[in-house]
Design a protein that fits this description.
Elements lengths: L30 E8 L1 H12 L6 E5 L11 H6 L19 H14 L12 E5 L9 H14 L5 E4 L8 E3 L4 E2 L8 E3 L4 H10 L13 E6 L15 E6 L12 E6 L6 H4 L2 H5 L3 H7 L1 E5 L31 H14 L12 E6 H6 L3 E4 L2 E4 L5 E4 L5 E8 L2 E4 L4
Parallel strand pairs: 1-2, 1-10, 2-3, 3-4, 5-7, 6-7, 10-11
Antiparallel strand pairs: 8-9, 9-11, 12-16, 13-14, 14-15, 16-17
């Protein structure tokens, strides 16, 4: 699930239809920021927790590994930090990630100011889960993550569950595949509520989750505001925000903020809203006034990042694990917007044009496919057949809103 970059080829992933309701991410006043993620999202959660330790209070990690595990190498990522390379190439061993060297690199980054001072980690609450049946990120990798965090954080602040017979997936107690199955949507019903348990560990005592359908609402927001041409950097044009009822009308005052990083092949362009609605977070958000930020990665074809993974191995940016990394900085700006640390969004540029084949427009998130036709996002104007032979100029007139035309 993490990479499979050498084995996965696809030109026609099912993309969600675009909506004219894409809006700028609202400015809010939330607090108590934490992060979590599965798989590549777990690695991203660790990166974010370490790089911005002064702004984050804790992290939940399912099937991830130590900070900077890949050290910029896809070979290391697929053979030492996970078993996602070519068959029989897995070299995961106990202590194999080299925790001592990763700690040294972390300390060097902190000394250089490319990540926050490591002293900020001391008070963090860390929740870890590794399934005994995980064949993609075996427990040896997660054991190294525990060792890594123990260097900076008292063991009393670290919880590690390693007895659940789960494959490589997000465990829930009410949705998904059988617990030992490996496959889409990488959400498994294991009789265990991982999202709830990690939130309770990070935030302390929480109200029971709601038993009814989640009562909050999703906002689809424009990610292009935080990273120019995000799809060229492995991020989608849109992300999602879940607002529970108690945080929807007061600017988020008195509400917490939790950032949820999906895993590879779990982005909205691949599995629709399955991760957003069934990973297990929303019902807890409703009963505990927790705003949920669901940033979205996106594929880069054909081989760079076809599975919409987060960048934890340098497919886009050599500074991917630092505060200046493209994806890291983009998500941090989103967090700042939601915690009152950033100004309200500026108006969109009056004209921004892109000329490309219809297929490339669809892959870049500027258009979507409908019955083999390419339709411009927002306006839904028919651009002709969705292929590489027809070229169209699209003009961006608002957040994820495009019209067929040209710029002056």
């Amino acid at each position: 699930m993490l990479l499979r970059v050498f084995l996965f080829v696809s030109c026609c992933l099912g993309l969600l239809p675009a909506s004219a309701q894409v809006v700028p991410l609202p400015a809010m006043q939330t607090a108590n920021v934490s992060v979590s993620g599965l798989s590549s999202g777990g690695y991203m959660a660790v990166q974010f927790d370490v790089a911005y330790s002064a702004s984050v209070m804790g992290a939940g990690v399912v099937a991830g590994g130590p900070y900077y595990c890949a050290q910029g190498s896809v070979a290391t990522a697929t053979t030492v930090c996970s078993c996602t390379g070519t068959p029989y190439s897995c070299r995961v061993t106990a202590g194999g990630t080299g925790v001592a060297s990763l700690i040294k690199l972390t300390d060097q980054n902190a000394a250089n100011g490319t990540v926050d001072p490591t002293a900020g980690l001391a008070s963090h609450r860390i929740w870890l889960l590794s399934g005994t049946a995980d064949s993609i990120v075996p427990q040896a990798v997660m054991n190294d993550l525990q060792t890594y965090y123990r260097h900076y954080i008292n063991t009393a602040n670290i919880f590690y569950k390693q007895d659940l017979p789960a494959q490589h997936a997000m465990p829930t107690d009410n949705y998904g595949n059988n617990c030992d199955k490996l496959g889409s949507p990488y959400i498994n019903n294991c009789g265990y509520d991982a999202a709830g348990e990690l939130l309770k560990w990070i935030y302390g005592s929480l109200n029971n989750r709601t038993s009814a359908s989640p009562a909050g609402r999703f906002i689809e927001f424009d990610q292009t505001e935080f990273l120019s041409d995000p799809t060229s950097h492995g991020m989608a044009a849109s992300g999602y925000l879940y607002l529970p009822p108690g945080c929807d009308s007061n600017g988020g005052q008195g509400c917490r903020l939790h950032v949820v990083f999906h895993g590879c092949l779990q982005d909205a362009g691949t599995i629709g809203d399955t991760w957003l609605r069934h990973a297990g977070y929303n019902a807890w958000a409703d009963s505990n006034r927790i705003v949920l930020l669901y940033p979205q990665a996106a594929p880069i074809y054909p081989m760079t990042n076809p599975n919409a993974c987060w960048d934890w191995f340098n497919y886009d940016d050599p500074h991917y694990a630092q505060k200046t990394g493209h994806q890291m900085a983009a998500v941090k700006q989103m967090v700042d917007r939601l915690t009152g640390g950033a100004a309200p969004p500026p108006p969109p540029p009056p004209s921004q044009c892109y000329t490309a084949s219809n297929r490339d427009h669809v892959l870049a998130g500027r258009a979507h496919d409908s019955l083999f036709r390419a339709l411009a996002n927002g306006s839904n104007q028919n651009m002709g057949f969705d292929n590489i032979f027809i070229h169209t100029t699209l003009k961006r007139t608002g957040p994820n809103f495009y019209v067929v035309g040209s710029c002056p």
